[in-house]
Amino acid sequence: MAKESKKNKKAADHPQIAKTPTGITGLDEITGGGIPAGRPTLICGEAGCGKTLVSLEFIVRGAIEFNEPGVFMAFEEKAEELAMNAGSLGFNLEQLQKDKKLKIDYVHVDRSEIEETGEYDLDGLFIRLGYAIDTIGAKRVVLDTIENLFAGLTNQGILRAELRRLFQWLKEKGVTAMITGERGEGPSLTRQGLEEYVSDCVILLDHRVINQISTRRLRIVKYRGSVHGTNEYPFLIDEDGISVLPVTSLRLEKEVSSDRVSSGIPSLDKMLCGKGFFKGGSVLVSGTAGTGKTSIAACFANEICNQKQRCLYFAFEESPRQIIRNMHSISMDLQMHVDNGLLQFMASRPTLHGLEQHLVAMHKLIKRFKPQAVVLDPITNLITVGSVSEVKAMLIRLIDFLQEEQITVMFTALTLNSVVTEQTDEGVSSLVDAWILVRDIEFNGERNRGMYIMKSRGMKHSNQVREFIITDKGIDLVEVYLGPEGVLTGSAREAQKLQEQTGEVLRSHAMSVKDREVLRKRKVLEAKIAGLQSEFESAEEELNKIYIEEELVKKVAEGNRQEMLKLRRGDQGGNDRKVKSNENKRI
Amino acid sequence: MKTKEYKYELRLYIAGKTAKSQLALANLNKYCEEYLEGEYKIEVIDLLIKPQLAEGDQIFAVPTLVRKVPEPIRKVIGDLSNEEKVLVGLNIRPANKK
Questions:
Q1: Domain locations along chain A
Q2: A–B: how many Cβ contacts below 8 A?
Q3: Checking CA distances to B65, which of A104, A391, A586, B28 falls within 20 to 30 Å?
Q4: CATH code for A16-244?
Q5: Could you report the predicted ipTM of this complex, rounded to two decimals?
Q6: Which residue has the higher pLDDT, A519 or A29?
Q7: Is B91 on the interface with A (CB under 8 A)?
Q8: What is the topology classification, in CATH, of domain A260-479?
């Protein structure tokens, strides 16, 4: 057990296979570092799928970027033809040959010139190749296309034996070789079964035309002793050579930023937690035709440029001038940013080239311009070029790439007026970080725009539907009127507002009338209260008067009795006088 | 190369003194004596010694016999064991019925 774990550790410390980077964009990524060093690799594919260019770029990049001189043994094209072909990719083969970094050896095999008699071997080829390798100290070798020997020579038995010996010999030489072979019929990868001899790494190239648009694809059929991407990867040949595009980066471990980027519409920012989108995030603006998607996108671009940052605008529908003119009408001056070099437009019809080419073109521009934000307007048009899944795959790759570069991207997408408006045609809604939906609200004989945020990852966004208005001064969002009759927008909202104002006036008028009546009633009541009070006071006075009189009588009677007592000086007289006084009271 | 009046100028490319190259040289000498007596010149080039010469005559197999003169260039590869093929390849009509 312990031994085993030790062994594993050792294996992890030492990669099993040394790799030679090809220098071809993307290919090294898929192969995990390049093709096996010191071994032959087979490149096969049909005619015209780019075998020669792949191998040529391998040699040239090796010579230029990795300082590994290379020998290109051509069986098909002459050195001059190759130099011309390479010139179209921007490689100067002549100069490289002068610098002893490259050697092109053209092997001419012509059946009409050759007669075979008896035993022979291919030592001549070995010697030529060996000589070429030794004169420039080559580390890389290309044999393009060695199968041509089969066309020139008839003795297949010898040829096969010699090829086996050749590949063995190449391995012994320690050169990294690339051998090209024409795609055979049926399941065989090459016409002459070269894959039998070259078993370490086999790369298959393919060239397909779907919907009149051609796409080149590359697949690693096998790579002995190494992990590799197994998918079919589209690749492109353009003026900078070959670019292979991995469909997705293999991992999801990108840097994220919690910085925010304003959308350029203050009220929209407010809906997004008051700050806007996340930097490096992806934003989708979808909506039906004429809902102002381009205006939102332009607004965003404008804002980025106002922050003195660069923005790249890919327009697939309108020309830059058209966009600039149209945005003038909502008082947005994009021309100024274009002049300052902050805003760059890249307008092309989607059908100009295939999706892959679009992607590569975007990659290149983005790498060159280094923008902080990118706008794609609209992605829906790309669907004319590829299928939904292809567009989606392309957008995934684009988003991956942009996130890696920390570039904020805004897509606009047209949704059809169907039942499922909550799904964009491209199915990218699950990929994006924020999704803003602009939709028509048709009511009362007019169409108005409503906007809401369907999702916004990582922030507490508003759940409200806002009315989205485009005025001479720009874009703004208004709260929609939520009345008893539902959501009101546009003139209906204004009408409702007016109606409410009238109601207010009427109500206040009615209120004042009522108030006055109350006042009057109060006055009446108060008057009544005063009357009653005075009545009560007079009654009270009356009563009080009786009391006082009685009191007075009592006092007087007491006084009298005292007087009488004084006068009589007798005990009985007291009682009599009491009765008397009682009688007196009754009267 | 002192004289240039030979009707046939032949070059035999070999790679070391292998059995095949020895056989080819022996065969070539035999045919030439038989059919081109006095009209030929043979130059033997060992590519192990002069590998840079392989490219000029487009040699990839050894042994290869190249007919430099008369034009056009013709090549015969192999140990030249098939007499008829060599003669056809070099465009030498056999004097006798063969």
A1: 16-244, 260-479, 494-585
A2: 97
A3: A104
A4: 3.40.50.300
A5: 0.87
A6: A519
A7: no
A8: Rossmann fold (3.40.50)
